[in-house]
Amino acid sequence: MGRRRKRGAWQVAGPRGSTGRDICKGWYVSLEEARVTETLDTVRQLLPTDAYTTDAWFAREQRELFGRVWNFAGMREDLSKPGDYLCVQAGVFPLVLIQGDDGELRAFHNLCRHRGSRLLEGAGNVGPAVRCFYHGWTYALDGSLQGVPQEESQFPGLDKSACGLHPASVGAWRNLLFVHPEPDAEPLTDWLADFPQRFGPHDPEALVEVSSVRYRFRANWKIVVENFIDGYHFFHLHSVSLGNGDFVRQKWLPAGRHWTFKRPMKEGTRVEGRLLPVIPDCGPQFGVDAHVLFPNLGLYGTATSWLTFHVVPVAPDLSHVDIRTRAMPEALARLRPERERPVLTDDVIVSASGPIASYMSPSPKVHPLESNDVMAEDIYACEAVQKGMQSPRYQVGPMSRDYERALMWYQQNVLDFVPLNSA
Description:
Rieske Iron-sulfur Protein; about 20% helix
């Protein structure tokens, strides 16, 4: 059966004051210029299949990659009151962010200093202190050890000042929070390189969250990220669902280890803003302003919204993608709270909340390739690649000179942390 495609109404966005005509002007080099500056003439696959399929490689990534970089944790508004906490897994390191009663946000290793049990789960508020459920050791919000049951009889001479929670690093850019397992990590500003200067017109702090959805991808996390930065599939997989995009004029450029991207809209097209209002600094002819903060955080700005696209590794062949969407505050007044909530299924959606979450649920009654739904199409494509890797005949063939070059560059960044010749 052929694919039946309907004209899509979904539109997307790019830089301050730009229109569909000038979105790619300025600091972005052309694809031809990017090709000239590339040291490798032939675009090719650098990572082996094992990097996407084996427990051994997955374990190495947890130690050697995620355990050595800044990891996205959440949004600043997630921790607003003293005692608010948020647990984050940074590779092999369980961490926790805690809002102190002095207004400071701190990060610690989420381990009791007595027997090493994990102290907290998920997110919430611990009140004035963190108490270990196991033996009752109690820590102040600044991580210092305050109380030890039966201290005098069982722990004579204990130096509580030496038994505080192990510190980690926390940093913020705009209203995004990041953590690093090391207490003396390189400054977040250094890690971000010149990405902040290449960020588009969106002001995340001025927007409000309108949905939070966790999707399930039965695919390796790198397949999902590579799909995000693949400019070739737009022409084919998303020819209708992103049909107003001018794919030929898409531009990307590295910013340190991070990927930055802009794509204008086709001439004569514009966003209607029926569901979400147009963001004034973008305008109705705005295309896409997208980024990937290495290794696994996508940012995606459109004429009407801005979102975080956090790819969470779960297993070699399983990932969660947490998408938190923000829009103009007046969007809340025009959304219909009575709209039917999305069906939570084992196939696609793990959890969903927010007034537009129901609009983001792919229909289970329609084949993904017939759905005209970007997420449904991408999930299907990523899972198809993962399934293909199970074949002994699997291999990556010739890659697009212009539109898949970013994949090779991204894979080299991964190899810088998880080299092929390591034991």
